[in-house]
Amino acid sequence: MSTLTATVRAAGPAPTEAPTASPLLGARLRRTLTRPGGISLILAVAVLVVVAAFALAPGLFSTFDPTATAPAQRLQPPSGLHLFGTDQLGRDLFSRVVHGAGRTMFAVGLAVAIGVVFGSLVGLVSGFVGGRLDAVLMRLVDVMLAIPGLLLAMAVIAALGFGITNVAIAVGIASVASFARLLRADVMRVRRTPYVEAAFAGGERTGWVILRHVLPNAWGPVASLITLELGQAVLAVAALSFLGYGVVPPDPEWGSLISEGRAYLATSWWLTMLPGFVVVAVVLSANRISQAIQRRDGVIR
Fold this sequence. Notes:
This protein is an all-alpha fold. It has a single domain (36-58, 86-294), classed as MetI-like fold (Orthogonal Bundle). It has helices at 2-11, 21-34, 38-56, 93-129, 131-146, 149-160, 164-191, 194-201, 206-218, 220-242, 254-261, 270-294. The longest helix has 37 residues, at 93-129. The N and C termini lie far apart (53 Å). The model is unreliable at 6-12, 14-19 and 297-301 (pLDDT under 50).
């Protein structure tokens, strides 16, 4: 018996199992809920997840054809059958909002991608090279920032033509200056740090220094700007579609849905209010996530 006890003591305590992903996820969720603004952050993420699901698989959330008319059911208020009511042609408004999410989010995603890629490229070159090239690029950025974004987007659409893709390109071009200005400032800061100078002194190539040292340390503020620009792009795309520059009827899109219902605002409020509420919810959710990313001691790390 004593030999067996000595053997067990020599072997040490039994190894404990590594914590599974589920308890870790639950603990992180509890920490988020207990911190200030944690519930609003979770709701914001949930809103964007639902909208993304609408865009990727609209058929899972709507049972009506978004373009099928039913004059006998025109202008019905929200009910159990029609969650958002029906429009002036009897089309189910909720189905049109769900199917319109795909077009809106496609335009928003393309616009943000254009702004990030070209704005980051301009900001990186301007901040890293400096000199006269920096002065020329920044003067161009100043001119773009001096023009209201919506007005600049309308000018681009006037040159490219109507359509949801051209709307996305126009909104993306209007957001290039914001990304360029922000990344340039951080690239100039990182460019003068000792580890970057040591990398050059060690004979590393310029491209490798940029990818390995400059961009990773200058990218942080851009991440929060991406989510902020996401909300602004939703507003810009919806506004341009509201003005008639986006999709061609009867295809649904959030801005065009609000525009179609404005003639019935006095009698059928749901035609404009409910699609507008969806736009507001998405914009506020994107802004809330951006604020969380910006906080150094926030709930997102």
